[in-house]
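note to self — DONT lose this again. spent like an hour looking for the file last time. sequence + predicted structure for the chain T wanted, 88 res
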Amino acid sequence: MASPLGKYGELVAAIVAILLVVAWLGAEFAAAIGFASPPDAAVASAAALAIGVILGQRATTNGAAKIAAAAHKRLDAIGAPPADAPPA
């Protein structure tokens, strides 16, 4: 999966994630000292999503997906039963 930003894709994603988290923490701090109203829940969600994107991007680019696919092939080859579905 190639980033449209090329070799700077990871750097830009990390900077955006850091800025989102800092903005969220700054808004929470300003609300705690009574300077501003509490931030919208969307800001916290965006910060959490940004961190998830950074970690997910790193997992896919370092080969974790290929390792998992190879492990699944080996399990299928030996006829291992599927894992139980998680409780709903």
